[in-house]
Amino acid sequence: MSLLQAVKYQRGKLEVLDQLLLPHEFHYDTVSTRQEAFDSIATMRVRGAPAIAIVASLGLAVELHNNPVSGTSDEQVISQIDEALDYLKQSRPTAVDLTNAITQLKATIRTADGKGKEAIVQAFIEEAERIFEKDLQSNLSIGDFGAQWLQAQAGASPDQKISVLTHCNTGALATSGHGTALGIIRTLQSKGYLKHAFCTETRPYNQGSRLTAFELVHEGIPSTLITDSMAAALFRTKKAENNIAAVIVGADRVVRNGDTANKIGTYQLSVLAKHHGIKFIVAAPTTSIDLETKTGDGIKIEERKREELTQISGAVVGPDGRVDGNNKVRVATADQRIDVWNPAFDVTPAEFIDVVVTEKGAVEKGPDGTFDFSKILPKRWAKVVG
Ligand SMILES: CSC[C@@H](O)[C@@H](O)C(=O)COP(=O)(O)O
Predict the structure, then answer these.
(1) In this structure, which residue's CA is closest to atom 10 in ligand 1?
(2) Quick one: DSSP state of residue 290?
């Protein structure tokens, strides 16, 4: 089985899989400049909170590797890199991984201040590469902690397999590999704990049907696709038969009290899960945690263009039922004059979340109903909260 990779990188060269063409066509774009990185992210050719941060960081690393910076003093070079990072930060607003990566990159280049411009650039490139490599390790740990938590809380085991529902895409395509929520599902499968994975279509951008369904099939994980509107009926009619124990989702931003921004539709799933006695798990690396924002009310939710709701693209299906991946079409699915509201994310309040699984462990709610991240992030906590 070939490995799914959203990003292929070697020093000086970055290739990014165009996810808009999936699952019908595999095409990698070369990304060599900050503008190309920005464009890949803003047009959603690459998407998913960790992958966005990785492409922005490595895209600029490639630009700096191949094109000497013009500044002469260390101060000038640092300010030019800062400017490029601030530009990249504008590519998409809701996921915090990019902001956290930028903070980390800015701090790292300052450790080379006074050592000359090559040292500053080198420090940047090495830090960007570390962000990429560390993400994979984080995903694998999230998978282990998530499976352990489900073993303890839902009795998941080879003798008592569980089923789960996931939303959006959080797999290898949204990260450096393995995935977060989908990473837990992969780990459950490898341990023999998984009965079945259900995935939502994830309207309007269809990350679930285009990407997650593709990843699940690719991995040979027993799985079923549903539309977003079928979740309640699924829980009501198929929970017992399938032993549906958890909804597992990723995160674009988990704020200080645990409120979590994730793909639109996540919030309604959390309400349904509570109603049906199903655990609700947020799987997120600590790079997706934002301690500076106190509650979900402070999260900026990206609104996207109307055509994402009123039009859809895909590949032509022939009369024999075969999909012709080379023959793409874009079709209208609504009266093009209708007014549209298209928020890309929503906020799930902490009260509906049972656990936030990070690479540093599973964090459960305290008696006050909020999450306390001070134990897993003591330094960041001290900086922000004191
Ligand atoms: C590990 S990816 C976590 C989230 O980024 C994911 O669930 C999600 O909401 C992605 O949204 P997208 O708009 O496709 O970037």
Answers:
(1) 48
(2) E
* pLDDT string in tens for the chain (386-residue length): 677 999 999 999 999 999 999 999 999 999 999 999 999 999 999 999 999 999 999 999 999 999 988 888 999 999 999 999 999 999 999 999 999 999 999 999 999 999 999 999 999 999 999 999 999 999 999 999 999 999 999 999 999 999 999 999 999 999 999 999 999 999 999 999 999 999 999 999 999 999 999 999 999 999 999 999 999 999 999 999 999 999 999 999 999 999 999 999 999 999 999 999 999 999 999 999 999 999 999 999 999 999 999 999 999 999 999 999 999 999 999 999 999 999 999 999 999 999 999 999 999 999 998 899 999 999 999 999 88
Report whether 184 contacts 211 (CB < 8 A). Answer: no
Answer whether residue 112 is part of any domain: yes
Contact 18, 29 (CB under 8 A): yes
Known catalytic residue at 252: yes
Percentages helix, strand, coil for the chain (3-state, rounded to 5) are 45, 20, 35
Shared-domain flag, residues 161 and 230: yes
Tell how far the Cα of 305 is from the centroid of ligand 1, in angstroms. Answer: 17
Ligand 1, residues 169, 185, 203: which to mutate, most atoms within 8 A of Cβ?
Answer: 169
Together in a domain, 189 and 45: no
Q: Are residue 122 and residue 164 in the same domain, yes or no?
A: no
Residues in Cβ contact with 139 at an 8 Å cutoff, skipping those fewer than 6 apart:
50, 175, 176, 177, 178, 179, 180, 183, 285, 359
Say if residue 93 is in the same domain as residue 211.
Answer: no
The active-site residue out of 252, 259, 290, 346 is 252
Q: Please tell me whether residues 178 and 280 are part of one structural domain.
A: yes
Do 216 and 87 sit in the same domain of this protein?
no
175 lines ligand 1 (CB under 6 A): yes
302 CA: nearest ligand 1 atom: 13
- Are residues 173 and 129 part of one domain? no
Q: Is the CB of 171 under 6 A from ligand 1?
A: no
ipTM of the complex: 0.98
Residue type, 70: S
Residue 180, ligand 1, Cβ within 6 A: yes
Domain with 371 in it = 155-303+341-384
User: Token pair of 328, please?
Assistant: 């793409």
Cβ of 348 less than 6 Å from ligand 1: no
Task: For ligand 1, say whether the CB of 46 is within 6 Å of any of its atoms.
Answer: no
